[in-house]
Write a structure and sequence with these properties.
The protein is an alpha/beta fold. It contains 14 helices and five strands.
Length: 370
Amino acid sequence: MIKIFIAFVRKELYHILRDPRTLAILFGMPVALVLIFGYTVTNEFKDASVAILNEANDELSYQLIEHLTASGNLKLVTTVNTTAELEQAFRANEVKMGIVIPAGFEDDFFGQRKADVQLIADATEPNYATTLTSYAQQMIATFQQNKNGSSGARPYLVSTETRMFYNPQLEGAYNFVPGTVALILMLICAMMTSLTIAKEKETGTMDLLLVSPLPPIIIILGKVTPYAVLSFIDAIIILFLGYYLFDVPVRGSLVLLLALVLLYLLVALALGVLISTKAPTQQVAMMTSMFTLLMPTMLLSGFLFPIASMPHLLQYISRIIPAKYFIQIEQAIMLKAAGWDAVAFPTLILFIMLIVLLTGAWRNFQVVYK
């Protein structure tokens, strides 16, 4: 009996070792998840984009800027001349924090009067904004201590005033609702579409559909259109609930927002069709969707963790995640009242993704059809 049992186990082991997909799940998934979670789940930040509005333009203000950016955690990406330019940089998602050094900063400091520095953060990501301002306050306190030294003279003082743009109450729903819209639409559109077509292929009914009088494009459109309509209704419901239950506003154009929701839906549907044309079974479609849609959308889109805090490799990977650009669009229109000029770039990226995915799906489908 023992020999039979060992022989049976050996047979099963050979089956597992001969199947690359099973090996990938057994060994590839744990390694990938540990690496992704290990690098993304962190409260640390680096290379946080910062703008400076230096109204003082004196020696001490430049020393303060050098001190703030010396560690590399704060990255100076632009210098602005007015608060309007600073607000424009926030709307375009170029910076996460602005540092305003007022005129007469050096005179106030060495005149032993209180020298004020204003820290303005983009609070559409509340936790990130709080972390950034806290770090900047600590760095300014260190700068003040270095200037005071060990002398017993009356100490120099630098005070900081903190302002939170777009979300002064630091409501978590302002970040949660846009991210949830992106995640749910991706799950419903892409995952469900890939499973539906894979089910037809697995049960053999796809072949019957392909030999029917209906053209292949009509078959595909007929499969994905219900999900597009239902997902669009879902998006409206989530935005409605976000507005009435969590007070998440839509400060910009609602028409522009809904139009770009539709574009994102098309990208998600194209992804689902692409997966379905490659996956032979529902199980393969599900695993492919989990690896390529669910986990990257949650971890690498900026929904849960700031992309700027991730290693460069993951930041590069995040550039191919559609949800990253859609969340930027939502935050810009809903929270910053931004117009077309601020969302033109992420919209262009989504449109290019749509063309590439549709082309890939069409080529794969042509192979299946033949």
